[in-house]
């Protein structure tokens, strides 16, 4: 009798864990309805790691690959010459912390920017983007989620222009459009992500036909996380919450020696999850965030917009549903930590 009760206990424990896993990583309850490739500078600003953790806990997306990308040469976050490899290593570390054992490839991109807007870089990441875009065995749409420079997607579309109509690019980057918003005080020019690889941005905007959902600086700066919520909603949530909050707290302590950071941090890459995983149920779209359609500008060699009356229409997001984005992340972290 005791033996039977023991096996019943194991069965119920296994069943409970199975039900929980279904809620977090997808099941008949929530099935993937899109494919994504994540391309980000994970050895740079830690907002990319927050975004990646959120995405990996989102069952409506099928993450096909994680690409570690480079920063600007000499960037303070990672001044090394192996930035893309370091970024891939950081993504692998997060997967390890989260205890996620999967077959998602984690691939380093190029460690350098494109030499010009006509010469693609060569990397395994570029090859993967092309191969995934050309798949014919799935009907799930493919999104490339880019929270840094555009080296890999620009190189992929230069290498094989056929992929342009098979990918939607969601990009965190670019300065404000003068008719939509003002830049912040003491703003950087060119904008940080665009400046990582201006030649690549010129390929994507000026030379390709890739559909673009752009989240420029005035929009991604809305993703403000109060330090109080970091302590209350993220830090207590198991190894993942402790790891993410630790990285951010360490960075804020270092920066505080030079700049008074106040009590908030901008998790500017998290809209990549908001605009994909958190689309509306019926007539799927990021329906709680707003955008305008604008002709894609030409980007000049200095990284500035120039009006292009022949530019294809692109989405430029102006207002983001930050409450939905962060509340979903907090809830998923809490479920995952239990």
UniProtKB/TrEMBL annotation:
Per the UniProt entry, the signal peptide is: none
Per UniProt, residues of the Inosine/uridine-preferring nucleoside hydrolase domain are 36-279
InterPro entries for this protein: Inosine/uridine_hydrolase_dom, IUNH, Ribo_hydro-like
- GO MF, any single term: purine nucleosidase activity
Any Pfam family: IU_nuc_hydro
Q: Does the keyword Transmembrane helix apply?
A: no
Thylakoid found in the keyword field = no
What is one term from the GO cellular component aspect held by the record? cytosol
Q: Which spans of this chain does the record mark as coiled coil?
A: none
GO annotation, biological process = purine nucleoside catabolic process
Q: Which UniProt keywords apply?
A: Glycosidase, Hydrolase
Name it. Nucleoside hydrolase
Organism of derivation: Adhaeribacter radiodurans
């Amino acid at each position: 009798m005791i033996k039977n009760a023991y096996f019943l206990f194991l069965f119920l424990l296994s069943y409970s864990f199975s039900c929980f896993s279904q809620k977090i990583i997808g099941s008949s309850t929530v099935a993937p309805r899109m494919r994504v490739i994540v391309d980000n500078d994970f050895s740079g600003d830690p907002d990319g790691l927050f975004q990646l953790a959120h995405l990996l806990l989102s069952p409506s997306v099928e993450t096909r690959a994680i690409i570690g990308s480079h920063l600007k040469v000499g960037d303070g976050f990672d001044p090394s010459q192996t930035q893309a490899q370091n970024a891939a290593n950081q993504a692998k570390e997060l997967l390890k912390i989260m205890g996620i054992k999967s077959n998602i490839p984690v691939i380093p991109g190029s460690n350098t920017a494109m030499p010009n807007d006509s010469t693609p870089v060569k990397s395994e990441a570029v090859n993967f983007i092309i191969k995934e875009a050309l798949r014919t065995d799935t009907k799930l749409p493919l999104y490339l989620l880019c929270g840094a420079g555009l080296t890999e997607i620009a190189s992929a579309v230069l290498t094989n222009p056929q992929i342009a109509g098979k990918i939607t690019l969601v990009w965190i980057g670019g300065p404000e459009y003068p008719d939509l918003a003002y830049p912040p005080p003491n703003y950087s020019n060119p904008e940080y992500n665009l400046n990582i690889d201006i030649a690549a941005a010129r390929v994507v905007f000026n030379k390709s036909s890739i559909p673009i959902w752009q989240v420029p600086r005035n929009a991604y700066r809305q993703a403000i996380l109060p330090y109080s919520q970091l302590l209350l909603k993220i830090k207590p949530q198991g190894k993942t919450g402790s790891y993410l909050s630790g990285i951010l707290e360490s960075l804020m302590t270092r920066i505080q020696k030079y700049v008074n950071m106040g009590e908030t941090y901008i998790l500017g890459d998290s809209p990549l999850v908001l605009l994909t995983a958190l689309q509306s149920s019926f007539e799927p779209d990021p329906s709680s965030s707003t955008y305008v359609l604008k002709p894609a500008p030409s980007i000049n060699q200095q990284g500035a917009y120039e009006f292009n009356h022949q530019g294809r229409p692109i989405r430029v997001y102006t207002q983001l549903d930050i409450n939905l984005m962060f509340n979903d992340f907090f809830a998923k972290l809490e479920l995952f930590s239990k």
